[in-house]
Write a structure and sequence with these properties.
- It holds the Pfam family Put_Phosphatase.
- Keywords: Hydrolase, Magnesium, Metal-binding.
- Residues 250-279 are annotated as: Disordered.
- Mg(2+) binds at residues 9, 11, 178.
- This protein is of the alpha/beta class.
- It is 42% helix and 14% strand.
- The protein has helices spanning 19-26, 30-36, 42-55, 60-67, 74-85, 98-107, 154-165, 183-187, 202-209, 224-257; strands at residues 4-8, 89-97, 114-120, 122-124, 130-132, 172-177, 194-197, 217-218.
- The strands form 2 sheets. The chain has a 6-stranded parallel beta sheet, with helices on both faces. A two-stranded antiparallel ribbon has the order 4-5.
- It is globular and about 60 Å long.
């Protein structure tokens, strides 16, 4: 299944909520968060939250313990492990924070399933403060996309992933997401790719309002069980389809090699293609 690349958003896709807001709520920062959330860029908001936690004496380890309690549906964990076991190339594309994403994935035993995590970099400085950097430096080199937040254009990241995997043959891309920021990368998908928006969330609503701009097939999901069912069904469908093509090609080659032994009038019947999955 080396021909499939599955790219996951993180917040409200892999985990059921938002990891940033989870920390804000669980660690008593709601009031400050509400004051600053609309006054500065998103990564700056979270930097301000981390500064406040440091002022209160909260350590990175305490933040990590808080993150480990964030809800993650067990069927999503199972879906990720199954897709990885089937040979899919799994990646994350999130406008979250590296420390948050990696802490949660490691806690649930699935960090090693992903070949790449694209998110806003973080590090713990010499004073023990969790420090955040934007994925795209919007002060020195703004990305110029009006669909995305200033600190990350997911469409640009998807294009880089597409280019980096093109040398290894044709790839089928899956993109799973929920928010407005997931619309831009969905536009970068091609025919034969699949986009899986979470039902009744902003990405799903935008696709429903502008369905003709999306080239990929659309498959909605609502919860962890449905994500697992839809994703694995699509992966297995593609696997069967590819195997049928391989068998058909081999059958035709063998027929050609043994043409002198084939009785007149015999025909080679092509293998049927898998029926398309209903949206």
């Amino acid at each position: 299944m080396v021909g499939i690349v599955v790219v996951f958003d993180f917040d409200r896709t892999i985990i059921d909520g938002d990891s940033n807001k989870w920390v804000v709520t669980e660690m008593g920062l709601t009031e400050l968060f509400q004051k600053v959330r609309h006054t500065i860029p998103w990564d700056s908001v979270m930097s301000r939250m981390m500064e406040e936690l440091h002022t209160k004496g909260k350590t990175a380890d305490e933040i990590a313990e808080c993150l480990k309690r964030a809800p993650l549906h067990p069927r999503i964990t199972a879906a990720i492990k199954s897709a990885h076991a089937l040979g899919c190339d799994l990646r994350i594309l999130s406008n979250g924070l590296q420390f948050f994403v990696e802490t949660i994935l490691k806690h649930h035993g699935i960090l090693g399933c992903f070949s790449e995590i694209n998110t806003n970099p973080t590090f713990v400085d010499e004073e023990g403060r969790l420090t955040i950097l934007p994925y795209h430096d919007f002060t020195s080199s703004p990305h110029g996309c009006n669909l995305c937040r200033s600190n990350m254009c997911k469409g640009l990241v998807i294009e880089r992933i597409q280019a980096s995997t093109s040398d290894n043959g044709k790839k089928r891309f899956f993109y799973l997401g929920d928010g407005n920021g997931d619309f831009c990368p969905s536009l970068k998908l091609k025919e034969g790719d699949h986009v899986m928006p979470r039902m009744n969330f902003p990405l799903w609503k935008r696709i429903c309002s502008s369905p003709t701009v999306i080239k990929a097939e659309v498959h909605a999901w609502s919860d962890g069980e449905e994500l697992e069912r839809v994703l694995l069904h699509l992966i297995n469908t593609i696997s069967v389809e590819e195997n049928n093509i391989d068998i058909s090609s081999t059958s035709q080659l063998n027929s050609s090699d043994c043409n002198s032994q084939t009785s007149p009038g015999s025909t080679n019947e092509a293998f049927p293609h898998t029926l398309p999955v209903p949206h």
